[in-house]
Design brief:
Blueprint lengths: L6 E4 L3 H12 L4 E4 L3 H10 L15 E4 L2 H5 L4 E4 L3 H11 L8 E4 L12 H9 L6 E5 L4 H5 L4 E7 L2 H11 L4 E6 L2 H23 L4 H21 L10 H12 L4 H10 L4 H6 L6 H16 L4 H11 L4 H9 L15
Helix pairs in contact: 4-5, 8-9, 8-10, 8-11, 8-13, 9-10, 13-14, 14-15
C-alpha cells in the first residue's frame, strides 16, 4: 500500500461521510458508498450530504456511488462505517470485491448482539481474512466537528504494525492526528462500551444533575470498560488513551453525541420508542448495551452502570430507580478488578 492509497468508505452516514473527507483532503482518491441511489447521486452531484451532514462541502477527490462493486473493487483500503446491527450483511456484499491485500478498517463502535463479536471479528469471520489485514479506528471523533476541520485525534489499531503505520499515513490530515496501537481488542471495546456509559451520562443530564455527578459516573464507567477490556485481553493503558478516556469524555459531554442525547431524553421521562422514532441516526449504545452486558456476564465481570442502563432501556426501570439502585450498592474498593492486589 503506497502513500496515497485508493480508499473506499462503505456507509454514508454522518461519521462515514466525515471520515471519507479526511483522506480525500489529503490527496487520496476516495469513493463513498451509500445504500440509496438518491443519496449517492446527491453527494456526487452537489458535493454535500443533505441528510446526515448538512452544510458541509465535500472535497473534490471524494466521489459517491450506490454500487458496492464500483466502490470497493480496486480499493487499497476499505473502511466500514455502517451500524453494528447491519455490519455483517453489508460486509458480506463487500467481500466478493475485496482486493487480495486490501486493508479492512472498521469505524463502527458496537458489539454484534447475537454473536457478541467485535466488528473486526465479524470482518475476519465473514471475509475469512487474517487478523493482520483488519484494523479499527476509534477516538473522540464527533462527525460534525471533524467534517468542519476542527483539530482532533484518533487511534488506528492493527495487529500488523506496518499496516497500521501505512493507515496512519493515509488518514493523517492537518486537522486530524492519528496514533497507532496494536491493541485491537481494547480500541474496539472502548469505542463500543463508552456509548453505553454516555447513555447513563445523558440520563443524569435529563434529570438535572451537575458536574460532580457526571464526573463520578464517567470515572466509574471507565473502570467498567477497563475491567471488561482487561478480562478480554486488552491493554489497560489503552483505556487511558484516545480510544478509552478521550472518546468517553467527548461522548458523555457533547451536545452532538447521539447516545448522550438519547439518555437525556430518557432522563426527562420520555420512552425509548418515542426518542428513536424521531431520529434517523443510530445511537449505537442502544443496540450494543445488551451485548456489552451479556459479554460481561459471560466473562464474570461486574458492570453495574451498563446493567442499569439496560434495565432502563428494556425492563421498565425508571431513571430515578436507576440512580437510587446504583448509589445504594455495597461499598467496594475503587480499583477492584483492575489492580491484581485489590
Amino acid at each position: 500500500m503506497g502513500q496515497r492509497p485508493r480508499v473506499a468508505v462503505v456507509g454514508a452516514g454522518s461519521w462515514g461521510t466525515a471520515f471519507a473527507c479526511v483522506p480525500a483532503r489529503g490527496g487520496c482518491r476516495v469513493t463513498l458508498w451509500a445504500r440509496r441511489r438518491e443519496l449517492a447521486d446527491a453527494i456526487a452531484s452537489d458535493r454535500r450530504n443533505p441528510e446526515y451532514l448538512e452544510g458541509v462541502e465535500l472535497p473534490e477527490a471524494l466521489t459517491a456511488t450506490h454500487d458496492v462493486e464500483r466502490a470497493v473493487a480496486g480499493a487499497d483500503v476499505v473502511v466500514m462505517a455502517v451500524p453494528s446491527h447491519a455490519f455483517r450483511d453489508v460486509f458480506a456484499e463487500v467481500v466478493p470485491h475485496l482486493g487480495p491485500d486490501a486493508s479492512v478498517v472498521s469505524l463502527t463502535k458496537g458489539i454484534e448482539q447475537d454473536s457478541l463479536m467485535r466488528m473486526s471479528e465479524v470482518v475476519r469471520e465473514v471475509g475469512d481474512l487474517p487478523e493482520d489485514r483488519v484494523a479499527a479506528v476509534s477516538g473522540p471523533n464527533l462527525a460534525k466537528e471533524i467534517a468542519g476541520g476542527q483539530p482532533s485525534a484518533s487511534v488506528v489499531a492493527c495487529a500488523d504494525e506496518r499496516r497500521a503505520e501505512a493507515l496512519q499515513v493515509a488518514f493523517m490530515a492537518p486537522y486530524f492526528r492519528v496514533y497507532v496501537n496494536p491493541d485491537v481488542v481494547g480500541v474496539e471495546l472502548g469505542g463500543a462500551f463508552k456509548n453505553v456509559i454516555a447513555l447513563a451520562a445523558g440520563i443524569g443530564d435529563g434529570m438535572g444533575f451537575g458536574d460532580n455527578s457526571k464526573a463520578s459516573l464517567m470515572t466509574r464507567g471507565l473502570a467498567e470498560i477497563a475491567r471488561l477490556g482487561k478480562q478480554m485481553g486488552g491493554n489497560p493503558l489503552t483505556f487511558a488513551g484516545l480510544a478509552g478516556m478521550g472518546d468517553l469524555i467527548a461522548t458523555c459531554i457533547s451536545p452532538l453525541s447521539r447516545n448522550r442525547h438519547v439518555g437525556e431524553e430518557l432522563g426527562k421521562g420520555r420512552s425509548l420508542e418515542e426518542i428513536v422514532a424521531e431520529t434517523k441516526m443510530v445511537a449505537e449504545g442502544v443496540k450494543s448495551s445488551r451485548g456489552v452486558v451479556r459479554l460481561a456476564e459471560k466473562l464474570g465481570v461486574d458492570v453495574p452502570i451498563a446493567e442499569h442502563v439496560c434495565r432502563v432501556l428494556y425492563d421498565g426501570m425508571t431513571p430515578q430507580d436507576m440512580v437510587r439502585s446504583l448509589m445504594e450498592r455495597e461499598a467496594r474498593p475503587e480499583l477492584e478488578g483492575l489492580d491484581d492486589d485489590a
